[in-house]
Specification:
This protein is of the alpha+beta class. Helix content is 47%, strand content 13%.
């Protein structure tokens, strides 16, 4: 199993963004780095940084709230619950990648959180027209579930499950948005070039061996 290099260019503020779906980028917050499996959300401050880096939180008001929750026991409880959910989500995604369905218990968990933490919608003017946008306005740490659980629900309801994949070389998951649907790696920079170089070296060794035995 290959490790993920933090110097590959797809990292923002210490987090990897290669999945084309924020919920899968969230799943990838425990990659295998040089020292082994690494928790990238070890505390509330790290979670705050991920929420901002991922674009989940964009408003100045919510960013200010996040800063005020850094020492909050409620925020820490939310983080621990979120990490536990991430690992249940991982199991569901692995099942989907294998052609199976998520467990009924997991779907019940997601449905319960959707009811408890719904996203809101509003009409806004944009480019001379009107668009419908989703938003959330958290008042306490638990309200941060809204965008996370909505993203999980969208992923679970995805019709093109064949495009939800795990990198052939590491543990990173992604949604393949390529035209041909043939993406194999988390990133060409991270794993793709390594695999191509390794394949070239194997071919070269084979040619060299044939020439020596000729």
């Amino acid at each position: 199993m290959r490790t993920v290099s933090p110097d590959a260019g797809e990292w923002v503020d210490g987090f990897l963004f290669v999945a084309n779906r924020p919920i899968l980028d969230f799943l990838n917050t425990k990659p295998i780095l040089a020292n082994g499996p690494t928790e990238l959300l070890p505390d509330v401050y790290a979670l705050e940084r991920w929420l901002i880096a991922s674009g989940t939180v964009t408003s100045p008001k919510t960013k200010s709230l996040l800063r005020s929750w850094r020492q909050s026991s409620e925020a820490e409880a939310f983080r621990k619950d979120l990490i536990a959910f991430r690992e249940r989500l991982r199991d569901a995604v692995v099942r989907m990648e294998a052609g199976s369905a998520p467990s009924d218990d997991f779907l019940k968990d997601v449905n319960a959180r959707l009811l408890q933490y719904p996203l809101h919608t509003a009409l806004r003017r944009r480019d001379g027209g009107v668009v419908r946008e989703t938003f959330f306005d958290p008042a306490e740490p638990g309200d941060l579930w809204a965008p996370i659980i909505d993203g999980a629900a969208d992923l679970l309801a995805e019709t093109e499950t064949s495009r939800i994949r795990q990198c052939e070389s590491c543990i990173v998951h992604f949604f393949d948005t390529s035209k041909k649907g043939s993406r194999r790696w988390c990133s060409m920079n991270i794993c793709g070039n390594k695999i191509k170089v390794a394949a070239y070296q194997r071919r070269k060794r084979g040619r060299d061996s044939e020439q020596q035995s000729a």
